[in-house]
Write a structure and sequence with these properties.
alpha+beta, about 375 residues, 60s Ribosomal Protein L30, Chain: A, six-stranded mixed β-sheet
Length: about 375
């Protein structure tokens, strides 16, 4: 029995390796102060791990969502949610995206339980290398300029954080073009700085061989902030350092959505990664858009939610999956007053699915809501590597 405020989804592959996603929020009645809410999230997470029989060695990734990162991050770094176990490191993202409802903190966590324990190694302050079945998975978190004394422009900061990622990949004999599968990019004021980030990212991608004729990377570009006062751009990323080209398939449904290049942005709608016994579907931030790139249902958040879900289902169907295969959602809302209606609608459609609701304006002001997440299905492709 999971404690109040916790939802979990589990996927068990034929090889005996189980993946678990959890969302955790303070339960109703938690005192409003941040310390009490953080303690409630810690306690509920620990109780959920105990209920599921998950040890510290299974933890791979955590993202902690905060309402005021500059005043709260230091408390998270001193908590059980931080990466404080040198023997079993965890990639921990800390981002200011205020949880909705009365909460000041929320958690999304990813665990892997396998017949043979994971091998986890910390590489610098921002990277954790997880080795499983001979494949190396690099989780990169809190990549940013570290600007604490003076502001820098968004283009320069974007170049800096992508340079940090490419340097980390190169240290393992990998590249962004071949091995990075997912990025999450946070901008302090998305309405102001998004275009500068896109310009810098497009130039960097071209430099590294990612173009409209090759491919891009599944991504979410959304409002958020790291714990440095003058950073305007920050990023998390996931890379599979041993991914073969035949394992990767880019997801699109042009009856529902146009290619992102048609409106001058550079990311994939979704990416499917296939293994011998499973497929992972990394779904980029998806909103209410039609096949000509136009915003649909302006001013109607519930209609936009329905269209975004329709689009995600179409993306998944292009890779032989569907909404029922989703393992979690993050829901970004521009207007926090839409939370109750959106939560009621989505909970009715996807009951029990781990879901984190945060305030995070999307890159176009007319988009009131955006969703992202991961799906997983079984597979029987013995010629491919094991996960």
């Amino acid at each position: 029995m999971l404690p109040d405020g916790v939802a979990a989804s589990r996927f068990l592959g034929a090889n005996g390796c189980e993946e678990i996603y959890l969302s955790v929020e303070p339960p109703a009645g938690t005192p409003p102060g941040f310390a009490a809410q953080l303690a409630a999230v810690e306690a509920r997470y620990a109780a959920a791990l105990d209920s599921l029989g998950l040890g510290a060695d299974t933890a791979v990734f955590r993202r902690v969502f905060l309402s005021d990162v500059l005043n709260q991050a230091y408390q998270v770094r001193g908590s059980a949610l931080a990466d404080n176990d040198a023997a079993s490191p965890v990639a921990v993202s800390i981002v200011q995206q205020p949880p909705l409802g009365p909460d000041k903190a929320a958690l999304l966590a990813y665990h892997v339980r396998a017949p043979q324990p994971l091998v986890k190694q910390r590489h610098g302050h921002n990277h954790v290398l997880v080795t499983r079945g001979g494949a190396r998975h690099l989780w990169s978190v809190r990549l940013c300029g570290g600007a604490e004394t003076a502001p820098a422009d968004a283009e320069a900061q974007t170049r800096h954080m992508f340079d940090a990622l490419t340097n980390a990949l190169a240290a393992h004999g990998a590249s962004m073009e071949r091995h990075c599968q997912r990025t999450w990019i946070y901008l302090k004021d998305v309405d102001v700085f998004y275009r500068d980030m896109v310009i810098a990212r497009t130039a960097l991608f071209k430099q590294h061989g990612l173009t409209a004729k090759t491919h891009y990377i599944a991504s979410t570009g959304i409002e958020g902030a790291c714990a440095h006062q003058f950073d305007v751009v920050s990023m998390d990323a996931y890379s599979n350092l041993d991914m073969r080209p035949e394992q990767v398939f880019y997801l699109n449904d042009f009856d529902h959505m146009c290619a992102t290049k048609d409106y001058d942005v550079t990311f994939e709608r979704g990416t499917r990664l296939s293994y011998a016994d499973r497929r992972h579907y990394y779904i980029s931030g998806t909103a209410s858009i039609d096949n000509a790139g136009r915003v649909m249902h302006r001013g109607d958040v519930l209609a936009q939610l329905d269209r975004a879900l329709e689009n995600i289902d179409a993306i998944l169907r292009s890779g032989e999956a569907g909404l029922a295969d989703m393992r979690y959602f993050i829901v970004y809302l521009r207007d926090r007053s839409d939370y109750d209606a959106v939560r009621a609608r989505l909970s009715a459609r996807m009951p029990g699915l781990p879901t984190v609701y945060v305030q995070g304006p999307v890159c176009r002001p007319e988009w009131l809501i955006e969703l992202e997440g991961v799906a997983a299905t079984g597979a029987a492709e013995p010629a491919l590597p094991q996960f």
